[in-house]
Structure formats: structure tokens, C-alpha cells
Amino acid sequence: MAEIYGKADGVCRGAGGTMHIFDKATYFHGGWALVAEQLPYAVGAARSILLDRRLDPKGMIDDDRIAVVFIGDGGAQNGRMAECLNAAAKEKLPILFVVIDNGRAINTFTHDVSASNAVFLQGQHYGVPGLRVDGEQVDQTLKAGRAVVDYVRTCGPAILQVHTYRLAGHSPTDPEIERGRKAERKWAHNFADPIKLFEESPMAKGLDLAAQKERARLMVDHALAFASNSPEPPAELAEQLEYPDTPGTDYNTRPAAADAVEVTRKTCDVAALMACKKHIASLHALARLGELTISGAVNLAVLEEMLRDPTTVCHAEDLQVGSAYSIPKMTQQTFGSLRAADEIINEGHFLGKALGEALNGYRPIVEMMHADFAIYGVPELSTAANTYSTSGGQMKVPLTVVGAGGEAPGQAFGAQHSQPFHAYVMAIPGLKIGTAATPDAAYGMMKSMIRDDSPCFLFLPVQRMEGPKGRVKLGECAPIHKCVLLESASDEAVEARKAVTVLTYLHGVKEAQDILGEIRGTGIDIDLVEMRCLKPLDLDTIRTSLARTHRVLILDESTRTGGVGATVSATIGEQLFDMLDKPVHRLAMSDAPVPFGHSLEAAVVQRGQDLLKAIKELACP
Length: 621
What we know:
Number of helices: 23
Strand order of the largest sheet: 8-7-9-10-12-11-16
Strand content: 5-15%
Helix content: 25-40%
Radius of gyration: 28 Å
Distance between the termini: 64 Å
Largest sheet: 7 strands, mixed
Structural class: alpha/beta
């Protein structure tokens, strides 16, 4: 009750409120505002039960837990239902889909928008049985509930559709209250109220209902008094609940799982494990020779972390063959399909499953192939990022998403494979966003993000996955909150006021490095800063560079309107304005969709020559 009042003593400390109540102690994983999005989260929770049994068979020998997810008959028409029935059936997951059937989809009658309201039959195509029961009859509902729970515990997924009547509107603002339904509502309270019907049934005979009602009344009175007397949450709590791991966390100090070696030995095929270790050794050799690619570096980080911590799991499309960029290569062959899951072509679906696993003690890695495919998973990314806050800090979500993205000059991928998704997600509170343009950065940041207790998204340069080769600091986690100074302007250029700070990331790093000789040939020099952390932004490194150059140019791989550069520019203008000799200069993508043809693309995407021209203009007195 205190949480409904938004008070500090609420189960979520007032941060969740009426729509986002979590209680980790009782395994209640929250109320979700986006209809049907709870379905893949529940599938992930059910997978976590199987993972627990797989990793600790002796300790879980008597485990009979199941996952239970509630949805309305209107919400069950959502495509998420079909995806999740398929996933539950494929892995025989212990999950019960409870459909509360009141004949409404918000205020619309379900039969007005659905060809069939027999939701309990939706699982037939997948071999998932279903049962419909009259929810106004308590005895029938109890018997049906026990039957389906027993089935789920022993056989796998099932659907229970509970037909009932909605006594009140969908919400306090429901226009239904204005529809003049007084007669219908009077009838409903007399003939469709399951409590009233139970009290009048033979089952209630011999029960002291008056005492039970008085007990319930006292409990409600106590809850109301407790909520009323609870203090308001302190204002600073909102900032404190942004991330569980603050910027500056050293992930090298995170201890490895004590039983990792033993669990891996017991759960992995001997030959497969030997093949994996041989593959890791070959990547180590490449790293020492300076021949490791970005894709190889991330694959190495993933395999090392999955060996280090058995709770680390992986999801991807085309996972068996390593996906498009070899990031999850050899994960399924080594760790099996439960820890390394090949997924249907629906990014939102397996992001949702990963979220459910993260809420239950696992560290999922989700490989997106192309980062902008994650557009299909924006609701899941948003939910993952705000759950730590809305749960009042109860539920950590150690979820790592990785994908190749951005737009390189001459890429010719067309608009829908060239979208600046890193800019799209900048506005999601609670999400950490990083970029890596080199193998060393990709390796170290990937390891850190996997160990971080926040949801993180690592963007990689799609045209450079096999391009730059280099050494990596094997076994070391890299900071995910720091920009990196790649090139420093000479003292002479700084003294002559011919130095410029260039902020860039992804493909912009190569564009700047390729043109560096020409820049210096003009007598100008630059501090080249790679923005490896887009969020939270490392303003300290930018401030240090501006203290020398007093001019800044942002080579941005997102659109001029609403892009990363717009946010960074505004932040510099607000907090470092007095350090600037000239206004912030932005080189951003045009707001037009990225075309396929090279001549068209050149009009949209900024190149090294554009950077050279802009630096000359900015360095002028």
C-alpha cells in the first residue's frame, strides 16, 4: 500500500508506484505498462529455472518452481503471445500463461477486434494445451488452477483462460464511467461478483465469513495507516537509482565465480571444451602478434566471460554459425543451447527473454548482428534500463547488448541498415552506451559491460569488424566511462592557437586518423578524442583537452537533429562555455535517410575531407 502511495517505505521505495510494483523477496517481478511485453520476460524467467537445474542438478533435485505470467484476453492477441508459446514449447519450459478474460481490450470489446477470443486454443499449433474456466466460480477455478500447475511442473507450458466480468473500468480515467451503465453495474455486483457468488455457494457453509471479513478489514486499515504515515522518498533517490554500478567502477576487481571451473567441467562436453580452449588460444596468439580483429576481440571476450562465470548466457540469430560477425562463435558448441540460444528472427523477443534471465541472476549477452535491428527491441531496452529504478534498487539487470552499427563512407547498406541507433537510445534513462573502434577497446569494454550490473549497449563499427587489427591487453577490463585521447596536439600548435579538439567515435576515428597527416601539413594540429562512452558522457576528458585548444569539433555518426553530437554540443555549451574561443562546430549526418548510391550517400555522410575543411575554418583566428 505504501508503494501505491509512492512512499519511502513502499516495497520499491516509492519509485515504482501503482504500475511497477516489484517484490524480489516473494519472486514478484513487477507490473509492466507495455501490454504483452511481460510475456518474453516470463519466458526468460522460466529459462532461468532450467538453467538453475542445469548448472546445479544436485542442489535443484527437488525444485518444482514454475513461472506464471498474467495477460488479458485483449493483450493475448498481440504477436508476442505466439512467439512465446513457440519458445516455451520448443524448450518445454515450466511456464503457465494465465489469461484474464473479461471481454475487453482496454475499453474496446475484444470480439470487435479479434476473430476468436478462445485464447486457450492458441497453443494448439505448438502443442501447448489450454483450458478455459469460469472465473466467477471459485471451486472450478481452484480445481483448474491446480490441474494446470501440476501439468506445467511435470510436462511443460500450458494456458489457463479465466473468464470473468470487469466490475470497474480499465483505469480511473476510463470513459466507461460516462456510458450510463448503472443498471448493468448493479446486475454485475449482484450476479457476477465472484466473492458474492462464493459467499452464497455451498462451499461457504460452515465458514465464519464475518470473522474473515473483519480480519481483512483490519489488514486493509493497517496498510492504509502504514502508507499514510510513511515519509516521502528523498529527492536524491532518483539520481541514486540511475545505475547500480557508478562511473569509475573497476571491473577487474570483480571476483570470478568460485565454482566456475567445476560447473564448466560438469556441464560441457570434454571434446567441445577442448576445441573452445584451442580456439581461445589461437585468438590469444593473434592478440600478441597484433593481428586480432574487432570481431575476434569481442568473440574472445564473450568466450572468456562465459568460462569465468557460468551464469553468463548468450542469445543471437544465426548463433550456431557465429552470426554475421563471429561474435558468438563456438558458444553453443561449447556450452549447449540452454546457455547459448539460437533465436527466431525477432530481436525484441530474445531481448525480452534475456531481460527475464537477468532478473533471475543471469548475465545475458545479446548479439544484434546489425545494431539497428534492435529497433525491434526498443520496448525491452527501455524496460531493462528503468527496472533497477522502478524496483527501488531491488532488481539489477546485468544485460549486455552488442551490435555492429554506424555509417561509414561508401558503406552502401541503404537506409534501413545505416540508421544511427546509438542516437535513438541516448534518451533511454538507465542505459549505458559505449562505442569501440579498435580491437583493444572492443575486448576490454565488452568484458567490463558483461560484469556491469546495468544494461549496457556496445556499438561496433560495421565496416571495420575485420579491418583494424591490433593487440589487446589480455585478461583486462577497460573503463566504460572514459573517453580516450588518441592523438595529442603539439605544444607548438597549442601555443600558436592552431589546435582543435576533435570528438568522434566508430568510423569517425578512422576518418580522422586517415586525414591527420594533411591536417598537420597545414600547420594545424588536433587532440583526437574517441568518445568510447556516449552515456554517461565523460566531460572531464573533454574539459582537459579544451583547456589546451579552446576549440572543439564533433565528427558525428548520427543525424544533425536529435543526434549524439547535438547532446554533446549542448552539454559543452552549458558546462564548458567559458573555455571556448569559438562556438562548437558539428559535422553530422544529414537528416535525410542514408541512400544506397555513392554519390547520394556522399551528400549525407561526413568524410575525412569534410573534417579537414571544417578544421581549417575553425582554426582560423
